[in-house]
Amino acid sequence: MIVRPLAESVELVTQVDHAVISGQLAEAWGAPTVPALAPRDSVVLAARLHDVGWRHWESNPRVNADTGRPTNFLDVHIDEHLRLYRLGIEEVEALDPYAGMLVSMHAAGIYTGRYSTQPALKLTRAPDVQSLVDAFVSEQEARYEALRDGLGVDEDELWRNYLLLQVFDRLSLRLCKGDPAGPGPMEIVLPADAALHIALADDGTETVAPWPFTTPALTIHVPTRTLAVDTCRDDEAFGAAFAAAPLEQREATLRAAA
N or C, which end of the chain is more exposed by having fewer CB within 10 Å? Predict the structure, then answer.
């Protein structure tokens, strides 16, 4: 769950909804200025379902005991975090082994700074259980490498599609206001030593260069719930407030940089 603190409230976006937005971005991808998705259907599926395992947590969300607020996705206990990703990887792999391979690599990348393409990405509780983290990364590397070999995918193709999955993930986090880099100008690594540059314009739109989508502009509707902080005093109260909160749609627009 993405938790954005407001004055006396919090805006919440589920990881499942964030992933759906990642899939929408992947579906819209395709300008001649950026690498193509190939195989397209598998990459789009991986983007849309890369956090599907989180539904097991978001059906019964918890409060962060350290803050007294809903638990942000970077602060979930690591044993639970690993469990959710294992469930999601298995689910996606059963639907599409290629997509499962990408989600497995994505999960390992969460604990490796996206394989050094976003070193600032940190889970707050990971250093306390480093042996669990290391074992998970080794487990997933063995898994996605076995899938790669079985599918006959070369390393360059896997790396290209992994990087593109990270683009969709990070762009979606940005639109959901949950990227750890914050609202300032952002650079996301692309294949072939290129980069996507994102900046917040004065009119509230997000500018992107090079423009990667098939339409002149792209408007995304972010499903949000807003809860007063005092309704999140414990897990039971938070769960009830979350279930009762109206689902709103916050518009976010991407456009080409001038």
Answer: C
Q: Name, in order, each residue with C-beta under 8 angstroms of 193's C-beta and a sequence gap of 6 or more.
A: none
Instruction: Give the whole-angstrom CA distance, residue 44 versus residue 40.
Output: 6
Can you say whether the dihedral through the CA atoms of 43, 48, 50, 53 is positive or negative?
Answer: negative
- The answer to whether residues 110 and 123 touch, using CB atoms and an 8 Å cutoff, is yes
Whether the Cβ atoms of residue 207 and residue 258 lie closer than 8 Å to each other: yes
Integer Cα distance of 91 and 153 in angstroms: 21
Percent of the chain with pLDDT over 70: 100
Tell if the pTM clears 0.85, that is, is over it: yes
Say if residue 220's pLDDT is above 90: yes
What is the β-pairing status of strands 248-256 and 206-209? parallel
- What is the per-residue pLDDT for 94? 98
Q: Any idea what the Cα angle at residue 193 is, between residues 192 and 195, rounded to 5°?
A: 110
Torsions phi, psi for 96 (to 5 deg): -160, 105
pLDDT-derived band of residue 182, with 50, 70 and 90 as boundaries?
confident
